[in-house]
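Practice problem: predict the structure.
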Amino acid sequence: MREIKGTDKLLGFIPVGNQNIANPRFRLGSCSLPGHCVRSYETGWTRAKVEQLHAWIDKQEAVPRTAEELDALLRRAGEELGHGNATPAGKQRAHKSRMYGAGHWHRPFAWAELMGAGGPGYVVVPELIPKTDCAVLRQAAKGLFRSGLLHGIRKRKRAGSRRPPSLRGALVHAERVGGATLRSLARAALPDLPADAKGAWDRTVQAVSAEAEHKASSDEALNLCAHGMAEQELHQDSTASLAYVVMLSDQGEATQFVELDEEWLDVMATSKTKRKAFLRRAWDEARKPAAIGKRRRLRAGDVLFFYTQRIHRAPPPPPEGSPRYTLFGAFCKRGLTEDTPLYHDTWEERWDTAGY
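Answer:
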């Protein structure tokens, strides 16, 4: 499509370039005299947001505007319609968040460990959380999950009791394997969290956020894995972000990651063509047992940081009588990690339809 240079309206929408792409570009324009059109800065929004913008413009007062006033109007449209990158400053922030190097999304962790060729795919900070806070959260989790009967299960069997406990919590990954790989209780669903557990949870998140040099975390949840639950499949989480797992039990094992002989791609900072080619190689490699990293034993208070778009899986279920408790969180917009994970047979369709 040819570029339209201006508009004959007091306030109009000026498409720029090809409008048949995922993020068409445009300006706002104002024509106060015939042949005299002033324009706002150029930007690109998603198709859905552009359609909303058309309706939004129709509701604005039809008066002549200067270029500065058009810029301010476009910024206001971005705020009201929820388009975070609608301004030049917003685009600059988005670009900065995708860049490689220290001081960005993965700060302050070593790039070689998180994303480097042959790297483990995670960073472990040992004993970051005091064991006293871990014990408080673990005890609270027993009551919240109703998992007390999972402890000392051998004694119950000798006593002749075989009644399985009725666990609380959302099923995790149950749609793929026919049974839950974890039980999860989101913090937002725990308004009656005991005061001591609330304090321990707040201190834990503060310590983790300070270590990661991020201001706030989201999607925080207590997780439970116990004997008899299904083993988790290799997958990618539905969003690209820095996430963390706080070990609340001593017998824990680290999340397992696929290791490659090339640097892991930051999927949100590359073109669609390059991203798909890389992920196809990564998922092909994930089918080889040798590509799965070695397990590492973790203790209560250790915190594991990882990139959610790296192919990974939770460790196998623990032995009978020793359920594993963890606290999960991520540095992303709230709710993003709760979407359906990407598996070897679903990732390509997701990336084709997501409009990235």
